[in-house]
Amino acid sequence: MNKQLLDEKISAAFSELIIDKALVRQLKIRDKRTIPSFVEEWMISRFQKPDKSNAEVYADITSFMSKHLPSKTEKETINYRLHSGESLVLLDRFEVRIDIAKGKKLLTIPCLEERNATVTSEVLEKNQSLLEGGQWGAGRLLVNSSGKNNVIELVEFNPMQSGKVRLEQIIKAREQFTTRQWIHLLLRTMGYEPSAYTEEQQNNVILRMLPLVQNNLNMMELAPKGTGKSYIYDNLSRYVWLNSGGGLSQAQLFMNLNTNEVGLLGGKYDLLVLDEGQSINFKGADDIHAKFKDYLESGQFSVGGKKVTSECGLIILANIPLTLEGHPRQADYIRHLPEMFHDSALIDRFHGIIPGWKIPRFTTNHAAQGVGIKADVFGEYLHQLRTVSHHEFPFGDGPTLKGDSRDVKAVTRLASALSKLLLINHGHADYDEYVFNPAKDLRARVRSQLLELDPQEFYKPIDVHF
């Protein structure tokens, strides 16, 4: 399908839910401030009008940001203005945590590097998402007295992101697309231009979304640099936490016993992304290793006698070297990850490995050239699919399979995610090609690494069937 026909089809099916991804890229709002794409698209949607030129839209947005989205260098100026009694509206990702022992509602304001502000009960009552990993929005701040101290308080809040998506609208729209056309829509929405990829490459790129629609899905993507592995996780959904390399401790990942604050895998997010996986330094690796195995298997972990259950998935993104032909340079490519992941018992708990080496390096030709669903709308849609009832969204039932129990569990969960993403159920003519076989291939790559790590136990190839 050519670009014009795809634009027309997407526009007819989704009308007010779409945005011109090419325009978003041309305006280069993110060159002015480091913000996620869903915030960028929200502002463009807000200021774009039929009678406005691109230059006027850009001027309006940058003026809006200069007033309400301060840079780090303006932190003390903002604090001074608040201290002087001004009431200011700032754009940021506000997050609230509850300190039960002290009876406080503690607000985090990243642009001010503030973790101990507060929020009114009225604001929190209307915006429960502030407790669920944070929410981008416009917040009115002022300074109030709290005992002997002054404290910054959030007294008004208008969320930036979309509310719940009407799933029946998506289901009805899907009927107007073939499976391949639907994949083109997904790619456009992710920020990619379908025509720049072969069909095999398209099929591999959309696999990146699977842990966003399925609870407790554990995956890896191993690829060379520059294929855009982390882009969608950082820009498509507020329910994702992207950690870019560096050191990670047990307290950060699971629970901080000093503060009783749950870590990144504790349930505040749908997905934890460990980027630059080959260079992560795990502090206290033995304890983390044991807890990883427990969590990836059961969705639970215990710290200091406390048991935490979470539906957060995990994906590890790592760079690996390739041959001139574009294949992994060595059969045991898993060994490019930290030593912790050289354990077959841990790797067996991962459901699938995305073959990032089959995805080309991202260039300007690969960027979306037309319309797609707005990122904030699509991020909410993906979030809803994790917990939606079968009555409301009749897709995602995993097939009844036979084979090794871990293989069956992995393929079933991956197939369920693909079924939700593509809106294809078992029995559909495209099910095997687009759902079952890709799910099986994802797990087969895990098996190939298990064979390299422990050939005596994992000498048999994957055998999962109906």
List the helices and strands and how they pair.
Layout: H1 3-14, E1 18-20, H2 21-27, H3 37-47, H4 54-68, H5 75-83, E2 88-99, E3 104-109, E4 114-119, H6 121-126, E5 135-146, E6 149-159, H7 167-174, H8 179-190, H9 199-205, H10 210-213, E7 218-223, H11 231-235, E8 240-244, E9 247-249, H12 250-253, E10 255-256, E11 261-262, E12 271-275, E13 281-283, H13 285-298, E14 300-303, E15 306-309, E16 313-319, H14 344-347, E17 352-355, E18 371-373, H15 375-385, H16 405-422, H17 431-453
Parallel strand pairs: 4-6, 7-16, 7-17, 8-12, 9-13, 12-16
Antiparallel strand pairs: 1-18, 2-3, 2-5, 3-4, 5-6, 10-11, 14-15
Helix pairs in contact: 3-15, 8-9, 16-17
Shape descriptor reads: globular
The neighbouring-strand order within the major sheet is 2-3-4-6-5
Number of domains: 2
| Class by SSE composition | alpha/beta
Low-confidence stretches: none
State the end-to-end distance.
Answer: 34 Å
Overall pLDDT: 94
For the record, the CATH class of the largest domain is Alpha Beta
Number of helices: 17
Q: What's the main sheet like?
A: 5 strands, mixed, barrel
Q: Give the beta-strand count.
A: 18
What CATH architecture of the largest domain would you give? 3-Layer(aba) Sandwich
CATH topology of the largest domain: Rossmann fold
Instruction: Give the amount of beta strand, in percent.
Output: 15-25%
**CA-atom Rg in angstroms:** 23 Å
> Residue share in helices?
25-40%
